[in-house]
Amino acid sequence: MADSINGYTEENSTAPAGELNVSIPITAGGFGVPSDAGSSKPGEEELNYSFDYDVEYLDEERVFDTLELSGSSVDPLTEAGPSKPPKRQKKNKFGNQSLSTEFDELSSTSKNDEYRFEATVFEKKFKNQKSFERCGDVLVSGNSAEAVLEKIWQYCSKFIDRGVVFPDASENTGELKWDNPPTYEDRDKFMLFLDKVSKRSTPPSKVDGHTLQNWQTKDVTVMLYKYSDAVSTLHKWNQVESQLLRSQTTDRAGAESISSLNQVKEDLKKRHGRYLSADDVSWGCWANWICSKPMNMRDELTQQTPPQHVVGLFSTVPVHSDVLLEKAKLDFQVASTVNKAYVKVLQDLNDGHRQLLNIASVMGQRITMLQEKQTEFENMLTAMNSSVSVRENRFSVELAQSVTDCIDVDHL
Fold this sequence. Notes:
Residues 1-46, 73-105 are annotated as: Disordered. The chain is an alpha+beta fold.
């Protein structure tokens, strides 16, 4: 089976029936021209175009909001506002529209480090998936290739899940199992680096200092496999979704069965009933929200506090002295959940307030400039008025001297 990643494929794969693979070597001169043998590095693979399944599977829980400000004219009012970090324009896979993205820079990044790595991170549900989800942009640095890779893994590990173990051909059960939680040593199963210039893919274990130096001037993409590269095809992804992620007890409409929903509700009451009090329908709303999530997330969600949209339906109940500390911790967790909802609102208000202050400052500067111009024009008009006033000249003086008084003979 060819391992295709948006035009990147591994050479040592074979195409199954119904799939067309076309290998095209790409060089600086164009298509079909052999490249130098010494230009490729160990662990890197050549471009192979594969016409495979095209399935779009987007996670509705993760939403990435992108704010793009643009203007055709340059004006101090439009330029006023809080300073923002530098942005770079990324080309969207699904069109020519550019995405204005900000880097998620780790706190340990330093400009004095020897290696700096920046890339866009994408995520796939299975390896041959054509349409994938963007996770963000990452900028890390370090004094060694291993340090850079550890920081990249630290950022990317929050987007991946556990790996999947498929049964061998000798096993007759055909049941899938979850692998152990992923660690840094398992990075090759969940991560792959794609160089868009040379059209080559490189696993993390093959990345060294020379590779990082070459990537500093290139556009690099980090591709993540949410459930490891073992889930390579659409068929395997359907198996994972049906056996591990989707509940086996559903009704005809595909919703969670009443018996399964009641079981989750009883588990919630047993675990949190000592601290929380609510009507049965409120516990049902909480259980229904948990049942809407994948199977591998339900145990963890059952142990957590109520989500924000239903926390108002619950109230704390009196408890004995032996559990007062545990109740206080739960109250703090619930209060923290509610308080975190105001962080984004306060940040937006703060940014808007600073932008209004900058706009008011620009308006004050404009008013001062107009006042200075008005004063200059007033002085200029006064000078022009004094230069054109009526004055005696030599001709008018001679004319006045030639006029003499005559004797009035008419009124004698």
